[in-house]
Amino acid sequence: VWPAMSAVLARLALAAATVARVDAHATFWWTRGGVCRPPAAGDRMMGNPTTAGSMTNQLALLGAEGVYSPGSQHILRISTAMSEHLLFASSGSLSQPSVGGTSPPSDLACQGLTIAWGGAEAAVIARERTVTWTAPAAGSGAVNFTLAMAGQYGPVTVYTYGVGEGPETNFTMVTEAPTTTTAETTPETTTAAAPGPGVSTTSDTSASRDFVGFPWIAGFLALGGLMAAGL
């Protein structure tokens, strides 16, 4: 089952650039820096300092919200225009990246938590990059996605977005248990405890849904348009 939790984490532009004919790529974060954590403001990446960018404001304006179900699988989508990207997930696992996506060296502990697209081996003109994220087990709590990008050959901008853990079941179960005590006894109906606030009472057995069904997904999809328009 592949719930349509597809998310465009950002629409980012990175022009191919060099300084003194020396390339700096997203994969250098691991291969040359040996770093196995998400980049943060103040770090140096791709030969430049990093600054924090906000996705929260744009997403909040769109009523963004959402949770994940433990153990579920989702396709994350990154809109790109000649860009290099470095993506980290704080929990769960990333796999099956699209063309050009690479994992860190096997001696680093963040295998499965991060993917980079960039360099000569990447399809830098790809319109969209994708990767499969498998949500962590129940009780893991919120998951943060960190996406790093560079505009021109300047400061690297880091975006972070958090997704909370949701219920493993999102439906109300009703069972009818007839008794055999007397012939006059009527069937007894037992209703499971009501779900918490915001929990749907309808089971979802479809393999996929339209993005609009998830407000926070719609927020990610619309974010590309906002950034392209200069908002």
TrEMBL record:
Transmembrane segments: none annotated. Residues 1-24 form the signal peptide. Residues 179-195 have a biased composition (Low complexity). Residues 179-205 are annotated as: Disordered. It comes from the Eukaryota. Keywords: Signal. This is Reelin domain-containing protein. It comes from Alexandrium andersonii.
